[in-house]
Design a protein that fits this description.
- The protein is mainly beta and about 260 residues long.
- The protein has one domain: Lipoprotein localisation LolA/LolB/LppX (outer membrane lipoprotein receptor (LolB), chain A, Clam), CATH 2.50.20.
- Helices cover about 15% and strands about 40% of the residues.
- The protein has a 13-stranded antiparallel beta sheet.
- A hairpin with an 8-residue loop joins β8 and β9.
Length: about 260
Amino acid sequence: MNTHTSKLLAFKIAALLATTSGVAHLSPEEKGLKIAVEADKRDTGFGDTIVEMEMVLTNRHGESSTRKMVLRTLEGVGDGDKTLITFDEPRDVKGTAFLSYTHKVEADDQWLYLPALKRVKRIASSNKSGPFVGSEFAYEDMTSQEVEKYTYKYIGDKNLDGLECFQIERYPVDPKSGYTRQVGWIDKEHYRVIKTDFYDRKDSLLKTLTFDGYQQYSGKFWRADSMRMVNHQTGKSTELLWKNYKFGNGYTERDFDQRSLKNAR
């Protein structure tokens, strides 16, 4: 049995333990996994989306620059989601495109199209901790957050800005991750991520991501209007502002192949 197979088997066994009715006492690890599984379950079935995204990069002196892009997502069936991001503004990055295939267990596949060079560059899995186009988001932050990519531990119940939340810790399975662990606050009512702290390979606090302005779509799916990542070690920050979500666009696998990198608009 190879490493990935054994990890997946361990996940399935743990998930079964965590979700079986009648279990009187769950360990912190089982409860953490159960919360993550429930959060994932509540966001299953959206199909596909397209949304406009504005990226605001702010340096340690408070100076900002803005990029505008469009993000398309195709929900995975039996595996992770596929994501295509295309840049519209400013002019020097227009036409740049990023394609990501998230996998539940294996390393993600990611490509970047650079129009100035007219070529597609594959992002090596060893570079996943690098900054996404100069932002405070890493390449690994720009993929769907599949449950199987982490192990979990429930820390306790916390009140965050008036919201009752579960606080859980999760640990990346991939040894090439740029993080040792992440601490997340998930609201108890809707199982939405409200805040996440990221710890670097030295286990020092690196970044904090906060989610604001949640709205519900299709009567079920919650999406934040704003995601702000603050880097505590550099003083820089990046905010992602989302608008005009559209669900059910009829996308297929062909809309997310490597040819789509050059043709996306």
